[in-house]
Every structure is written in structure tokens, then in C-alpha cells.
């Protein structure tokens, strides 16, 4: 095996074959590799642990969600290769130009596989890449700009949130976010978003007064993030039971702002149903509600439940959600007609 500096490269091996995955992992430097058995598991680990490089077995390149996985890889500046027998031929043709390939037989020496992976073109650790610029042209608020924005997401949400929030202006309305993420990784997500967004992105600490130009992210795994009733609006952290298996919960946040004037909410990609009830409550209370559409979701779970319940005024592709949050009417009084834009 070629010499490599310990700790200089952390990579993710995504392979459904446990035996083959184990052979590769056994020859990796100690602590350098993490493993996933499916594309969805790889997505979660790529978001939460931010490896420098990812090797994806060709066996799962046909799985749904590969396009969004590649979008995440690009958003996080992670090096990426597909490996396996006839790796290029088994990858969808429309994606081949953006991927490096390593071909080998199942019986090949795992050391050769690792060396081939590390020698593949484009493997510059993410820390050595120039940072991507902030959004150059943030969306402008419409006549009926919201006074408060709430966002909820789960699987695939880190990159989705980055897409939405990098389109926010520096003086955006107070924005609160719940992202389902493994404990211990939320602080890194907050720092990354703060470095790439025009508004300040900060942990949602208990008692913080909500201010324009700030995005408040739930970060305490033992307490739900809610907005205190009345004025001035403040973050409150509540030690209550998990909702839909999650704490913090999107439903807890959304329900706490239902009925407030000028609320706009978006429910983004994610597994399960967290946020659907809360989105319906916001809609009933006069707020603007948006769900991400199926085509741009990594997992069309939470938004799907909301759409099926009629809780979404707009169903939009990810890159149009920020503009819609700042361009829709915030009143649902008598005679008001909301569009239900179903982009499928």
C-alpha cells in the first residue's frame, strides 16, 4: 500500500456488500474510514461527518436519490468516485461526465482498491479547496414580506438549507430552523451556514430575542425549540418528550408560531411526518406554507405528508423556495386566493 499521512484524509465507503465493505475497511488506516450500507445511510453520514472523500459502490448507483447525493457532494466540496466491476457502464449515462471511476473485480486485493481510490483524479481534501462564495444575488422581499420565517428538514436537509439560506438577504426577517441531525454535528453545520450566508446563523439559545438578519438553529438534543408567545418574540427551549421520534421537533417549532401575523414556513426534504401537522396549523392560522417538491427531495417524506393533508399552499423545487417565502401574501382573510403551485 502506498504511504499516506495518518489523519490527512477521512473517507466514506458506501457499499451494500458487507463482506466486500469489510475487506476494504480492514485495510484502511485506523480512524480514516467510515462505512455505509446504502445510499440513504451514506447521505446522512456525508452530511453529519463531512468526510474529505467518498467511494460509492456501483451496485447502488441506480438507487433513487443519486442526483441529490451528487448535489450534496458538490455543495460540501467532497471528492467522489464510483468503484466496482464495470463501474462506468452501471452508472446512469447522464451522470458519467461528473464522476471519476475505479474498475476492479470482486476478488481484487483491497489494498489495490484503496490505492486506486486515493490515486483517482480530483481527490483534494475539502479543507484545501477555496471556499464557495456567498450568494451574490440574494432574493429581494416582496410587498408582503413575512415578519418571521420557520424552516424544517431532515434527511438531505443540510444541503437543502444551504440552498435556501444562501439566497436570504443580510436583513432577512428572523428565521428559525429545525434540522434533524446526529448529536454532536449541529455546531459544525451552524458554523458552515454562518460562513456561507449573508445573515448571521447562530445557535438558538433559550431566551434569545429574535432579530432581523439572524437565523436561529435548534441545537439542543434534549429540548424542543419554540417561540415564546407575545412580544418581543424570543427563543424558548422546552424539555418535553420527542415528537415523531425527534427532539428538537419541526412540529414543536411550527405549532409555536401558528397564528402569529406574517409567518412563512417551508418544510424541506426528510423522512417521516415531522412538520406536517405544524405546517397545517400555520396554514390555518393565516401563514404562508411551502413544501419542497418530490423531484428535488432526497427523501420525499415530510413534505409528501404535508401535501397529502392539503397543508402546503405552494409545492416548489428547492431553488425557488427562498423567493416564494418573500414574495407571497401573508394574509388569508376572506376573499384571499392562494395559489397552489404544484411543480411536479
**Number of H/I helices:** 10
Helix content: 25-40%
What is the strand content? Answer: 15-25%
Weakly predicted, low-confidence segments: 1-7, 121-136, 328-344
Order of SSEs? EHEHEHEEHEHEHEEEEHEHEHEHE
Strand order of the largest sheet: 8-9-7-6-12-13-14-15
Q: Could you give the count of β-strands?
A: 15
Structural class label: alpha/beta
Q: How would a crystallographer describe the biggest sheet?
A: 8 strands, parallel
CATH architecture of the largest domain: 3-Layer(aba) Sandwich
Return Rg in Å: 21 Å
Oligomer: single chain
Mean pLDDT: 81
CATH fourth-tier homologous superfamily of the largest domain: Methylesterase CheB, C-terminal domain
Note the overall shape.
Answer: elongated
Please explain how this structure is put together.
By secondary structure, the chain is an alpha/beta fold. The chain folds into 2 domains: about 10-130, Rossmann fold (3-Layer(aba) Sandwich); about 150-340, Methylesterase CheB, C-terminal domain (Rossmann fold). The protein is built from 10 helices and 15 strands. It has helices at about 20-25, 40-50, 65-75, 110-120, 155-165, 185-195, 250-255, 275-285, 300-310, 320-325; strands at about 10-15, 35, 55, 80-85, 100, 150-155, 175-180, 200-205, 215, 225, 235-240, 265, 290, 315, 340. The strands form 3 sheets. An 8-stranded parallel beta sheet has the order 8-9-7-6-12-13-14-15, sandwiched between helices. It has a 5-stranded parallel beta sheet with strand order 2-1-3-4-5, with helices on both faces. A two-stranded antiparallel ribbon has the order 10-11. Strand 12, helix 8 (about 275-285) and strand 13 (about 290) form a beta-alpha-beta unit. Helix 7 runs parallel beside helix 8 (about 275-285) and helix 8 packs across helix 9. The model is unreliable at about 1-5, about 120-135 and about 330-344 (pLDDT under 50).
Amino acid at each position: 500500500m502506498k504511504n499516506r499521512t495518518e489523519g490527512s484524509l477521512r473517507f466514506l465507503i458506501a457499499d451494500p456488500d458487507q463482506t466486500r465493505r469489510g475487506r476494504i475497511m480492514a485495510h484502511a488506516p485506523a480512524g480514516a474510514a467510515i462505512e455505509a450500507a446504502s445510499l440513504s445511510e451514506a447521505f446522512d453520514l456525508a452530511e453529519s461527518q463531512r468526510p474529505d472523500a467518498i467511494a460509492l459502490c456501483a451496485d447502488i448507483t441506480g438507487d433513487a436519490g443519486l442526483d441529490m447525493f451528487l448535489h450534496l457532494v458538490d455543495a460540501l466540496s467532497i471528492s467522489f468516485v464510483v468503484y466496482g466491476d464495470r463501474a462506468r457502464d452501471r452508472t446512469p449515462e447522464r451522470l458519467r461526465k461528473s464522476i471519476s471511476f475505479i474498475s476492479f473485480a470482486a476478488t481484487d486485493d483491497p489494498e489495490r482498491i484503496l490505492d486506486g481510490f486515493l490515486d483517482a483524479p480530483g481527490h483534494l481534501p475539502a479543507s484545501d479547496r477555496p471556499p464557495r462564495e456567498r450568494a451574490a444575488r440574494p432574493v429581494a422581499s416582496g410587498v408582503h414580506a413575512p415578519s418571521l420565517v420557520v424552516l424544517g428538514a431532515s434527511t438531505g436537509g443540510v444541503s437543502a438549507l444551504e440552498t435556501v439560506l444562501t439566497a436570504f438577504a443580510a436583513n432577512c426577517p428572523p428565521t428559525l430552523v429545525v434540522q434533524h441531525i446526529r448529536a454532536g454535528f449541529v455546531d459544525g453545520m451552524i458554523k458552515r451556514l454562518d460562513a456561507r450566508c449573508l445573515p448571521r446563523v447562530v445557535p438558538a439559545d433559550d431566551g434569545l430575542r429574535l432579530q432581523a438578519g439572524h437565523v436561529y438553529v435548534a441545537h439542543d438534543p434534549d429540548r424542543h425549540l419554540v417561540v415564546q408567545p407575545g412580544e418581543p418574540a424570543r427563543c424558548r427551549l422546552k424539555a418535553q418528550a420527542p415528537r415523531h421520534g425527534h427532539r428538537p421537533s419541526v412540529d414543536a417549532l411550527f405549532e409555536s408560531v401558528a397564528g402569529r401575523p406574517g409567518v412563512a414556513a417551508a418544510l424541506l426534504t426528510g423522512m417521516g411526518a415531522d412538520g406536517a401537522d405544524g405546517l397545517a396549523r400555520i396554514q390555518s392560522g393565516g401563514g404562508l406554507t411551502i413544501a419542497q417538491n418530490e423531484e428535488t427531495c432526497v427523501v420525499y417524506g415530510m413534505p409528501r405528508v404535508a401535501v397529502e393533508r392539503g397543508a402546503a399552499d405552494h409545492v416548489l423545487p428547492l431553488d425557488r423556495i427562498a423567493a416564494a417565502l418573500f414574495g407571497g401574501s401573508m394574509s388569508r382573510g376572506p376573499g384571499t386566493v392562494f395559489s397552489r403551485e404544484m411543480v411536479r
